[in-house]
Amino acid sequence: MPIHKRPSWALPYSAVTPERVFLNRRTFMAGLAIGTAGLCAPMSLSAAFRPDSLEDLNFSPAPDFSTDEEKTPFEDVVRYNNFYEFGTGKDDPVRYAHEMSVDPWSVVVDGECGKPGTYALEDLVKPHTLEERVYRLRCVEAWSMVIPWIGIPLADMLKRFEPTSRAKFVYFETLHEPDEMRGQRSLFSTIDWPYREGLRMDEAMNELSFMAVGLYGKTLPNQNGAPIRLVVPWKYGFKSIKSIVRIRFQEDQPATTWEMIAPQEYGFYANVNPEVDHPRWSQKRERRLPSGLLSPNWVETQKFNGYGEQVAHLYKGMDLRQYY
Ligand SMILES: Nc1nc2c(c(=O)[nH]1)N[C@H]1C(S)=C(S)[C@@H](COP(=O)(O)O)O[C@H]1N2
Ligand SMILES: [Mo]
């Protein structure tokens, strides 16, 4: 049996035949699970997560958009996560995200645009060449990672939907599927599901905004937001919404999950900023993973997470203490 099989959109366009376009990933994965039952995942990874089930992607490196800082090891990127749909513990996503089925997957596009509709994942991704971008990810909780993402510039994807001049914001929504997402079944959850995020249109169209479908050369693990998630590297991690099922163009600023929960602590803009502390902790530095008790690996937090050259102009004349 094949060891590596690629989703249709991972192949060069010339290699995509009509049959392959509809290649059923779930059927393939089921076959793989039986075929490799005798192999073990590395002991350091949860039994529920099988990195061998991830599929290789074709991509070209985008060095102009990538940091050459040391990458956070794969094991940390896929084991230490925030994905409240599966629980609030850092290891809940790696343990439970396999309960979410990601194939087939489609995204509803609506609102102020010329090409609304329900798009199959393949149709969103196929027209684009995948890029690899190594970005810093800075969580509002003061830890950070350096992750090699694979995906598509968000602007390139959004332009295909032909946003109208009334589109001032773009809104994103995560899958709402309590049967598959145990955090959504929890009686203690403070989140009004689905998880929601949004960007101002000029932020969405900035060259750094990225729609990721993979990391470390493979399709996204479920715990990292499979099959498609946003990556906005100059903003706190909670803006980088996972497992997206809706994209809506709108005139008004959308309500977003963390702002809805605690507006005095988390704003709509959420730009990384060491000068504006969180009400309950400092944002001046961050633990760069891997980080342990004996070697926490503190580093200085940079304004706009070090991406000021590309994005500072978006906020000219705005008081970043007011618009946090
Ligand atoms: N749907 C959804 N998206 C989400 C979250 C979440 O709980 N649910 N957590 C966010 C937060 S707080 C962070 S720091 C990043 C973490 O991404 P990672 O687990 O891939 O490192 O995902 C963001 N996207
Ligand atoms: Mo975060």
From TrEMBL:
NCBIfam families associated with the record: PRK05363.1
Modification after translation: Predicted to be exported by the Tat system. The position of the signal peptide cleavage has not been experimentally proven.
Keyword Iron in annotation: no
Comment on bound cofactor: Binds 1 Mo-molybdopterin (Mo-MPT) cofactor per subunit.
Subunit structure: Heterodimer of a catalytic subunit (MsrP) and a heme-binding subunit (MsrQ).
Keyword annotations from UniProtKB, A to Z: Metal-binding, Molybdenum, Oxidoreductase, Signal
Protein name listed in UniProt: Protein-methionine-sulfoxide reductase catalytic subunit MsrP
Broad enzyme group: oxidoreductase
GO molecular function terms attached to this record: oxidoreductase activity
Segments forming domain Oxidoreductase molybdopterin-binding: 100-258
Family listed: Belongs to the MsrP family.
